[in-house]
Amino acid sequence: MKNTFGTAISVTIFGESHGAAVGAVVDGLAAGIPINRKYIAEQMSRRKAKSDGLSTTRIEADSVEFVSGVYNDHTTGTAITLLIHNRNTRSNDYAKMADLLRPGHADLTAYAKYGGWQDARGGGHFSGRITAAVVAAGALCRSVLQAKGVEIATHLRKCGGVEDLPFAQQEKEMLQQQQMLNKMDFAIISETAGQAMQQAIRQAGREGDSVGGVLETAVTGIDAGLGEPFFESVESVLAQLMFSIPAVKGIEFGEGFGFADLQGSTANDPFRMQGDTVVTATNRNGGINGGITNGMPIVFRTVVKPTPSIYKEQQTVDYTNKQDAVLQIHGRHDPCILPRARAVQDAMCAIGLLDLYTQRFGTLWHTQEGK
Amino acid sequence: MKNTFGTAISVTIFGESHGAAVGAVVDGLAAGIPINRKYIAEQMSRRKAKSDGLSTTRIEADSVEFVSGVYNDHTTGTAITLLIHNRNTRSNDYAKMADLLRPGHADLTAYAKYGGWQDARGGGHFSGRITAAVVAAGALCRSVLQAKGVEIATHLRKCGGVEDLPFAQQEKEMLQQQQMLNKMDFAIISETAGQAMQQAIRQAGREGDSVGGVLETAVTGIDAGLGEPFFESVESVLAQLMFSIPAVKGIEFGEGFGFADLQGSTANDPFRMQGDTVVTATNRNGGINGGITNGMPIVFRTVVKPTPSIYKEQQTVDYTNKQDAVLQIHGRHDPCILPRARAVQDAMCAIGLLDLYTQRFGTLWHTQEGK
Amino acid sequence: MKNTFGTAISVTIFGESHGAAVGAVVDGLAAGIPINRKYIAEQMSRRKAKSDGLSTTRIEADSVEFVSGVYNDHTTGTAITLLIHNRNTRSNDYAKMADLLRPGHADLTAYAKYGGWQDARGGGHFSGRITAAVVAAGALCRSVLQAKGVEIATHLRKCGGVEDLPFAQQEKEMLQQQQMLNKMDFAIISETAGQAMQQAIRQAGREGDSVGGVLETAVTGIDAGLGEPFFESVESVLAQLMFSIPAVKGIEFGEGFGFADLQGSTANDPFRMQGDTVVTATNRNGGINGGITNGMPIVFRTVVKPTPSIYKEQQTVDYTNKQDAVLQIHGRHDPCILPRARAVQDAMCAIGLLDLYTQRFGTLWHTQEGK
Amino acid sequence: MKNTFGTAISVTIFGESHGAAVGAVVDGLAAGIPINRKYIAEQMSRRKAKSDGLSTTRIEADSVEFVSGVYNDHTTGTAITLLIHNRNTRSNDYAKMADLLRPGHADLTAYAKYGGWQDARGGGHFSGRITAAVVAAGALCRSVLQAKGVEIATHLRKCGGVEDLPFAQQEKEMLQQQQMLNKMDFAIISETAGQAMQQAIRQAGREGDSVGGVLETAVTGIDAGLGEPFFESVESVLAQLMFSIPAVKGIEFGEGFGFADLQGSTANDPFRMQGDTVVTATNRNGGINGGITNGMPIVFRTVVKPTPSIYKEQQTVDYTNKQDAVLQIHGRHDPCILPRARAVQDAMCAIGLLDLYTQRFGTLWHTQEGK
Fold first, then answer.
1. Measured distance CA(D218)–CA(D167) in Å, rounded
2. What is the nearest CA distance from C5 to chain A, expressed in angstroms?
3. Which of A10, A17, A22, A67 to mutate to probe the C interface, most C CBs <10 Å?
4. What is the spatial distance between Cα D202 and Cα D144, in angstroms, rounded to a whole number?
5. Distance set, CA A248 to CA A266, A273, A305 (Å)
6. Are C263 and D101 in contact (CB < 8 Å)?
């Protein structure tokens, strides 16, 4: 279904950048899960623009309103609908350039698909704004996973030409990194790399340009046996979700594209006993074999293209008059969306994994406390 | 659903490597589509092992039996079930090593998921053998697309350390390359690169090792307006399918991971008028903006890890006795699966695109001839 | 999916009786469909309680707010989210009897399913209040169907022991009846029967009791060839939807349960030529053969049980204290919900049929006007 | 999806009456469920025609071949594909009347949907023959339910004008009736009624006619809390499945259409304590409140129309020549399909309930024995 993901847990997202609200319906959560508003606000805050020169100056309150499925601060077991109202919109910025297709954006494809009926203001349904709803929905799923000991964290592995350190090999050390990252606004492992990245982003911003990068996610505490051999492989499920994040154009698991240059003898992860448990000595497969979790941490990376909205002059066409034109974008935009997209990646990951867990263990597995 | 893909067109796959048959149910095709057995056999042949030292010596006839949905060599409009019988199986090769988990394979995850009840012979349901059914199902979908002018082709962009040329930039030239590739057993654009690749594969085979690589797919003649902004983005749909191919560990569209090092000003594809049509001057986004086709060719690459089955000795564990062990794999295996996986990638691509077309234009769009 | 219906058109409903709002997400409608607010208000009005002694005295404004997917009074092609706010709630009425399970209601099953976390106020998610969202969603679907000449109408075939006339046999006459019914608040064919019914309902209300009945729906102008032979038979699709209406406990198509007493020779509808078209001389199969529409009007009936909320004293149990008890229900309730449920039945029917049409003809079939 | 049912458990059916085979893919069953071939053969046998004058003289061996998902007589956890080969086909009987539409059948709708490409032999995909695959799939699901104490049984409540006794009120006595019925070929509670029914069926057969009737199903040992308030209400799920049985034209739960003549005070089931358990003193709601099981037995009835294939002369049209005609059907047909349809109803019920159980308790709930 077009705007719905999932089998046991389903998430339906909706909204336009300059409409009344963006939101989501989260269906399939068990009753009795506590709604921790502080926790949700923290997740939302990570996705929010900051007035630090790294992101757009459109800053929304992003408070999450629960319209259904929540009562006395707990889930009721019915479909949860959440809304995040749009308040700080400046549609005029967009009106001026309605006819000029913005390169790298969905302006042309919106015409192809919707024939001119789309709400083009602020990118409409294609706007990154919709991911606010994903983060809120993800926060609900993530709280269930965390109660079961599953931790998710994402850092900027590469940005503006600067590389961060990779995650540690050992799960224990990786978990410490995750906990650290989950407290940071600008999530990096190496402080030095982080400073260089921020400098590169600000520099691009000053030039009216933008930068892309790579986000790396690790999941620890994951059970073995989740996922399916084919269409619901863990890679298939996570990839479907990650490519729902605007600007993501690639994903790789474990060694990823590095596998192209390995041989079987260097690519395979040897099995070893660790007490009574079978582990792999290395984790080149990113915790997934045959589409199914093997109990080692899941590790994957996505590539996020540079924000297409830049202030530099660009060649384009005037769609209505069907002629070549020059575009100068105004409005408020991020010179780099990775610091914010990272929260969305975490959220998408939580949604996908909770669906797989629920398929295997049932809805009742969610239950956190009795009544 | 676990073994089912699709919304308007659905494909359900089943089978085990050494069971009676592998197969698929293809549901949603219109009535009256001609079943061209020669065409299907050609597609199947591309996935088949050849006795050329590049692939396993297990060679199957792979003739496709239609059990339902086909009558008088045309589709009837009902669910099409196709079977490919397994004949040339040597289960003894596997019996000897039943307890020793093969590194890089799904042996451990099969235990985690199925608790020992899996049919482990030849990899069971995790075997690449199941992809024979995908190729047959894909052939049906592909024939509908081709009748509409949509062409798909895949080549080995990289293998055993050797790089092939990329696809041409111009759609016309790209189409010629596709037509050439679709006649080749070992699909490469540069003949020289092809020879070097084959040498590298044979060398790895001689060393009892295996190599990985990158497959690149191009789709020409595609309509603008297919796909959805989020969970059914063209990237999401194709990625879900490609990660259903055993050994695929990454996918990227257009510039892919190269976007990490670009800036907005170099990453965006400028729009230009070409007669009355809006095109992009470059195609760094691989034909997709905002999850939706923009009318330019779709271009994507997957990374295929080296075949995990190698003859070299490997460290592993004895699962039953829970102790470290050494594994020496026998049986018949490919030193490189890219030449064959390429047919599966084409097929998966056809299935995904026909689903998107059918959602937009309905089942009747398939119709090719009257009765 | 739990709260989502449909394949090509999907409708997700949510909300609790005394929560902030009830609503729906309608996904899959093409762009450019006009949103006729007067038309929607009319449909909503039919479901609304009236101050006529036939229904509850809780009267809601029921104005429909579009949160997404609508722009400039047309659909944008993206997911449409609509909200109907709950304003006129008196939760105190319910608080008093929280522990006493209401016979015929979902109070016990809510405990079984949600373990006490349910929002029990006003029946929570089980309330007929949620059907306001169904009517709004149905209005959107219905407007597309009507533009294509498909007409839907429902009347009270039986209520409080009084029978209305059945629909006419001839489609032309049936269409006139539909148009008449679609203007009525209390939808009956025979005025005399209608008066007797209203009398019976008022009488039951005065006695603190309630009545059930039968709703009959006819669909004219329907294309032949919709539906599938098995799990998506037209009967399967409509039945799934009708049983989503609280209080519906049975459905029958054409002769329905009357078939039990017929023989093949009296049950079969003979085919006849009518000009160049094949028609059936009778329509005992209610327009459906083998699960697929045959072009004759679809005719079906549902049975609606008497409103379980009555003022008469009832035997029940105190759930918390686990002991037998006596219940005296207060609050505002309908002595008969058929006059209002009829609007829901129309809406559900429109949703199901638009899904089947869209599967066959694609999304673009919706298009009503160019831009 | 067209030929696929289910969320956690999915069943895809395929096949044509005179094709190579009919069959099903059952996906979502846990690994390690024993395949009891004797048990499956018994279920298949109930659906089979008998040479007793009550059913068609086309008698198939109906042995079930497992093509995938079964190994060492246990499920492997992967998709199970089963085939039932068609052997005893006499297509000539049908060839003679290809152009004459059979009243009450899907001949016209097949043309409308498939445009003449359908495999019309023996009714093709519309044939009751496909239900052999449903019974086999249902047997797998039923064995899981029975291991959990859930019993399903169906009897001919009404047939050829004769009524059988209803199920007993008390669950204990009902279970005894179920166990008795599940051993009978002609499933009735009252022996006298059974004899009269068989006489009526034979009489209709002798007259070249056929009879319809009502099938009544009871489910005992069912857990409370299954199903959802709306689109996946237990009634919705079971109705979708029952209307997938050819010839079923109505379904009702508990009092069903009898509710139309009741009042709230006589329709509601009073709650009572039975030890520590809340039960209902009566079961007029058929074990379901608000779409969710309440722990009381599920009771429902379907109406099965008289077999449309009769030997009596009928009025029809010649589809090719578009003119009125007279039809005399030959071939082999049941004067009454209820004795056989009852096995299909049991199977559909098992499929639906296992899906609901699995959604709630997860796949692992299936597990019956360790390995």
1. 8
2. 10
3. A67
4. 37
5. 29, 38, 6
6. no
- The tokens 């093709």 sit on which residue? D124
Q: How far apart are CA B369 and CA C15, in angstroms?
A: 48
For every residue of C183-247, DSSP letters joined together read T-SS--S-HHHHHHHHHHHHHHHHTT--B-EEEEEEEESPPTT-S-SSTT-HHHHHHHHHTTSTT
CA distance C206 to chain D (A): 13
CA distance D86 to D69: 22
CB atoms C359 and B363 under 8 Å: yes
> What token pair was written down for A145?
């996973």
Q: Which of A83-97, C193-207, C218-232 has the lowest mean pLDDT?
A: A83-97
Q: How far is CA C117 from CA A70, C19, C150, in A?
A: 9, 14, 43
pLDDT average, residue stretch A228-247: 97
Contact call for residues C139 and C44 (beta carbons, < 8 A): yes
Structure token digits, residue A73 = 């601060």
| Beta strand extents in A140-182 (DSSP E only) | 151-159, 162-163
Strand pairing partners for C71? C74
- Cα D342 from Cα C163, distance rounded (Å): 33
Distances (CA, A) of B105 to A133, A260, A278, B321, D49: 38, 17, 14, 19, 48
ipTM: 0.96
pLDDT of residue A207: 94
Question: Tens digit of pLDDT for each residue in C305-327?
Answer: 999 999 999 999 999 999 999 99
Q: What is the pLDDT of residue C98?
A: 65
* Contact (CB, 8 A) for B232 and A239: no
Residues of B in contact with C361 (CB under 8 A): 362, 364
**Residues pairing with C68 in the sheet:** C81
Of residues A13, A20, A119, nearest to C76 (C-beta): A119
Of C78, C360, C364, the CB nearest to B360: C364
C350, two tokens: 């429109």
What confidence score (pLDDT) does residue D58 get?
62
Q: How many CB pairs under 8 A join A and C?
A: 185
User: Could you give the angle at the alpha carbon of B122 between the alpha carbons of B135 and D11, nearest 5°?
Assistant: 55
Q: What is the pTM of this model?
A: 0.96
Give the per-residue pLDDT at B56: 67
Structure tokens at D92: 């000539």
Phi, psi angles (nearest 5°) of residue C298: -80, 130
Q: CB-based contacts of C206: which residues, under 8 Å, 6+ apart?
A: none
Q: How far is CA A79 from CA A367, B279, C12, D208, in A?
A: 16, 43, 9, 54
C106-121 pLDDT, tens digit per residue, is 999 999 999 999 999 9
pLDDT at B248: 98
- 24-43 in chain B: CB under 8 A from chain D: 25, 27-28, 31-32
Task: Give CA–CA dist A347/A142, Å, rounded.
Answer: 7
Q: Which residues of D182-208 are buried (b: 16+ CB within 10 A; e: fewer)?
A: beeebbbbeeebbebbbebbbebbeeb
Residue D205: phi and psi, rounded to 5, are -60, -45
Q: Closest Cα partner for B4 from D82, A9, D10?
A: D10
Q: Using alpha carbons, list the distances in angstroms from residue D70 to A325, B118, C52.
A: 64, 9, 63
Q: Which of D7, D360, D363 sits opposite A360 (nearest CB)?
A: D363
How many Å apart are CA D69 and CA D83, to the nearest integer? Answer: 12
Query: Scanning the structure block, which residue is given the tokens 């049929």?
Result: C353
Question: What gap in Å lies between CA A345 and CA A159, rounded to an integer?
Answer: 16
Q: Give the helix/strand (H/E) hosting B154.
A: strand B151-159
Mean pLDDT of B271-281: 96
Q: Which of B242, B250, B51 is nearest to B131 (CA)?
A: B242
